[in-house]
Amino acid sequence: MKLLCAILLLGAADADKDSALPPGYEDNMWCPPDTCQIYRNPYGYVGGRSSFEKCYDPQSDRISSAVWTGSETDVEAPRGWVEDPPYCTAEEYSECDSDYDCSKHIDYTCTCYASSRYHPYDPCKGDRRSDCNRRECTGEECDYNSATCELNGGGGGYCTLEYYADGGEVRVD
Questions:
Q1: How far apart are CA 82 and CA 64, in angstroms?
Q2: What per-residue confidence (pLDDT) applies to 27?
Q3: Residue whose C-alpha is closest to residue 156's, from 87, 53, 102, 83
């Protein structure tokens, strides 16, 4: 019985590692016309596609959430929206060209995040502004993390965090 419990716990831990939704819930991304797809993951989290893949309008420089459809949902995309838009080209949207365009910061909840010098990430943007009273942080929240530039499918880059359990970093910000 103990062996069975250990196997079940190991399997649950392994399944949770990728934290993506099963097929049928996020099969297709829908964006407004004249937008392209970007990937944003300033905290380096794992999860479903809808957490990180967004719609971007190069004309207005605005990022918006997509509508996600799938065989296991009753969600319908708004009329005129584009299914699975292409990734933005590097000319349309790119947060970084190299690791040196990304830097790590501590947000109002004392959590480390990565930001770009081209498209800075504001954790207090929009409706979160009232929640942004700065707490007393230790200043060590970004230890064991490095801000890095990863390429997306369209050639542009996005800033994210990489965690180093041994404390080793690729570079110092």
A1: 14
A2: 93
A3: 87
Task: Specify the pLDDT at position 125.
Answer: 75
Per-residue confidence (pLDDT) for residue 133, from 0 to 100: 75
Find the helix or strand (DSSP H, E) in which 13 lies. Answer: helix 2-18
Residues 6 or more apart whose CB falls under 8 angstroms from that of 50 comprise 26, 29, 65, 66, 68
The Cα 21–Cα 37 span in angstroms is 19
Q: Give backbone dihedrals phi and psi of 36, rounded to 5 degrees, phi first.
A: -130, 175
d(CA 146, CA 161): 6
- Tens of pLDDT, residues 90-136: 999 999 999 999 999 999 889 999 999 999 998 887 655 666 777 78
Identify the bridge partners of residue 163 per DSSP, sorted by sequence position. 145
Question: Tokens 């949770």 label which residue?
Answer: 16
User: What's the chain's length in residues?
Assistant: 173
Q: Measuring CA to CA, which residue among 164, 104, 99, 171 is closest to residue 139? A: 104
CA 153 to chain centre: 14
Coil/strand/helix, residue 133: coil
- Is pLDDT of 53 > 90? yes
